Task: inverse folding
């Protein structure tokens, strides 16, 4: 049932995205982006990040956010796109690891419920934050996580 809901949501977002491609204001910079260079770079990033997420579970937000910003996306579009990409990667990875019995279901369900609550409020908050401030906030969070990982790894 959950996978069906995720599938339907993914399909709805994909259809909405295809409809909005014709709208000049729907892409970064206010122009239709059929640029082959962006698509090739996006495909290469996608393959790389897919491998990293599948192997380590690291990369959903940490790698996608800077990559999408480098591709010229606004902060809000970066957040939305990263969430969509991460959702797709997470569903596939969860299935693979779940089938192999490598999921702590109690922890996963508990954190998922908490995350649903947090996402609701986080989305509402981020939409009211100006693009420049949101970009700086994302960079501070990513930098802070990197420092925490270095400190934890050093111990």
Result:
């Amino acid at each position: 049932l959950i996978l069906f809901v995720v599938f339907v949501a993914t399909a709805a977002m994909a259809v909405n995205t295809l409809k909005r491609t014709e709208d000049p204001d729907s892409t970064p910079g206010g122009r239709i982006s059929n640029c082959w260079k962006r698509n090739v770079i996006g495909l290469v990033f996608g393959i790389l990040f897919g491998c990293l997420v599948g192997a380590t579970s690291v990369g959903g937000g940490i790698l996608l956010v800077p990559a999408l910003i480098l591709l010229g996306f606004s902060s809000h579009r970066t957040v939305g796109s990263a969430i969509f990409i991460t959702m797709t990667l997470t569903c596939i990875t969860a299935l693979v690891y779940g089938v192999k019995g490598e999921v702590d279901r109690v922890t996963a369900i508990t954190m998922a419920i908490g995350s649903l609550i947090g996402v609701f409020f986080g989305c509402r908050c981020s939409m009211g934050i100006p693009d420049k401030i949101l970009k700086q906030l994302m960079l501070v969070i990513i930098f802070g996580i990197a420092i925490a990982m270095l400190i934890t790894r050093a111990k």
The chain is about 75% helix and 0% strand. Residues 21-32 have pLDDT under 50 and may be disordered.
